[in-house]
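Need a sequence for this fold. Nothing fancy.
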């Protein structure tokens, strides 16, 4: 309550809260009264409370997300894909091109990634591109290629969904569905994916707060799907030297707030080949459960994101260089 607000105003609010079935606990100080409220948050409107006479401020004590919250479930969630337990002390290394471009391209990259021990491959068949003239992906043909090539190399695949109408085709052909940054708040998509039960890679929106990010995950969980892996992929800032700004504090912070695993995408976060290795090291060092990196057999000719894709050789070198960091944090690949 405002300093010096009449007792009558507090009494009125207490009465209203009780009528709503909530439990008000008033604390009467010398200058002001504070009213703590216990009960279901959905039974009250913060906006309405703020409009009442004598109220200075209404503060939420509990988080708006529940199922994803560490308060609800203390032990970490583990999402298992092709024998990789994402969220355990086994790091998930996901690699592959930005887009599926052809059978030859996928075969070449997959055979090299398999040699590096990669068990989960990425590749976009449906691409959310900024402009309508850019390569939009091979769509169903791309899914087909992705599945066939991955099967040949005993790999699982993750691919992005951009339109709910493609859900059935994607479910049939893939092992994990990516919801990209641009669709993080496509709530209808989140609900449908929640109903699907398929593991989900949920990327942080370009300008989403961590609370919004976790609430997007909450949509998937509340619709019945607990298999969500979060992905920090950088946010929009004023900086132009990097494609986005990699907000690595998200990783330990999400670990404080949620039981869900979180991986890092240094490729989209930086947009710059030379920064992938250092930022992957940093991601592992700060507690990420894995990483997703773009690898293309011939990055210079990639149909999307050419500047940020590594060659398979560069990727292999990076994987070797990550070993001391993995050891330092007690994780293995
Ligand atoms: C991608 O992974 O290819 C992609 C488009 O990522 P983001 O949604 O993070 O931009
Ligand atoms: Mn990309």
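Here you go.
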């Amino acid at each position: 309550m405002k300093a010096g607000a009449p007792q009558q105003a507090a009494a009125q609010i207490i009465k209203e809260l009780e009528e709503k079935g909530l439990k008000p606990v008033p604390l009467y100080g010398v200058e002001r009264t504070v009213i703590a409220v216990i009960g279901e948050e959905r039974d009250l409107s913060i906006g309405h409370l703020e409009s009442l006479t004598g109220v200075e401020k209404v503060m939420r004590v509990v988080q708006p997300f529940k199922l994803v919250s560490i308060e609800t479930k203390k032990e970490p969630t583990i999402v298992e894909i092709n024998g990789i337990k994402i969220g355990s002390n086994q790091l998930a290394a996901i690699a592959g091109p930005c887009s599926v471009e052809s059978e030859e391209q996928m075969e070449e990259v997959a055979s090299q990634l398999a040699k590096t021990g990669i068990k989960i491959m990425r590749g976009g068949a449906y691409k959310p591109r900024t402009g309508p003239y850019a390569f939009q992906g091979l769509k169903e043909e791309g899914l087909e290629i992705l599945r066939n090539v991955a099967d040949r190399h005993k790999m699982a695949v993750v691919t992005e969904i951009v339109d709910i109408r493609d859900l059935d085709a994607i479910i049939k052909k893939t092992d994990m569905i990516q919801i990209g940054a641009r669709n993080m708040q496509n709530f209808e998509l989140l609900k449908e994916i929640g109903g699907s039960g398929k593991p989900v890679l949920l990327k942080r929106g370009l300008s989403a707060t961590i609370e919004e990010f976790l609430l997007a995950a909450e949509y998937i969980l509340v619709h019945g799907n607990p298999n969500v892996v979060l992905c920090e992929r950088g946010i929009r800032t004023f900086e132009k030297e990097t494609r986005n700004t990699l907000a690595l504090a998200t990783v330990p912070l999400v670990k404080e707030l949620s039981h869900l695993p979180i991986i890092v995408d240094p490729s989209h976060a930086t947009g710059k080949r030379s920064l992938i290795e250092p930022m992957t090291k940093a991601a592992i060092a700060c507690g990420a459960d894995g990483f997703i990196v773009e690898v293309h057999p011939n990055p210079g000719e990639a149909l999307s994101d050419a500047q940020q894709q590594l060659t398979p050789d560069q990727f292999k070198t990076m994987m070797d260089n990550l070993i001391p960091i993995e050891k330092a944090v007690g994780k293995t690949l």
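For context: Residues 79-329 form a domain with the TIM Barrel fold (CATH 3.20.20.70).
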